[in-house]
Predict the 3D structure of the following.
Amino acid sequence: MKKAPIEWRIPEHIGIIMDGNGRWAKKRGLPRPIGHTYGAKTFKNITRYISRQGVKYLTLYAFSTENWKRPLEEVNALMKIFRQYLIDSLVNFREDDIKVVFIGDRSAFPSDIIQLINETEEIAKDRKGMQLNIAMNYGGRAEILSAVKQIYEDIRDGRMSEEELTEASVSSRLYTAGMPDPDLIIRTGGEHRLSNFMLYQAAYAEFYSTDTLWPDFSEKDFDKAVEEFNQRSRRFGGV
Ligand code: IPE
Ligand code: IPE
Ligand code: MG
């Protein structure tokens, strides 16, 4: 039987867990931070490519609340790369009209990085293209906990009634307030776990894992993920 052609769907919101930089470097006998430097190049190229595919929201997991556990030397190397990332994104994403937003607790970063984050957001705030969320010092549990605290205070201080406490009121207190939930979450580096990424928002996201290490992740790898997404049947609990 001939199959009816399916309508090609570009996910509206894609999340990417950019994993495998360290292993990429190790495979080449290089120190781990070199892997992060190459990962930053992939970040720039892939973001541009994805924005040109018509994706509306892209959330990239750059640094988790748990990544502070790494040796100080690696954390410092990452901070150095972030400074470069941030300056780069100011310049590079202008031509594609990409709006840049940071999600996570930025207050833990050195003050010059906080300033760069604020400036990057400010400069890009009126852009009309894809919204790029960079998750830095982001943790899904910390995000949910912060929403719970806000709700507790709002109820305690009479700004909100108990009846108003709905799923929507939780969503609106997450870093991703006002954004659609991710449709597709891609993880590079071969692991099959979320590692504290978008725990609340990922409820019905399609999960795609590839063995490709992040610095090697190419436009072709991205296309493959979208192709597989198109083959999934999303039922959202229905039939
Ligand atoms: C992902 O690559 C980047 C960050 C978490 C900052 P890793 O550094 O986790 O690379 P692997 O997983 O050790 O190869
Ligand atoms: C997840 O990768 C975090 C980011 C990609 C920023 P990790 O390398 O930290 O995750 P685990 O430790 O393998 O779960
Ligand atoms: Mg890793």
Residues 206 and 229 are 7 Å apart (CA to CA). Residues 19, 189 surround magnesium ion (ligand 3) (CB under 6 Å). The helical segments are 21-27, 32-51, 72-92, 111-124, 140-156, 167-171, 219-231.
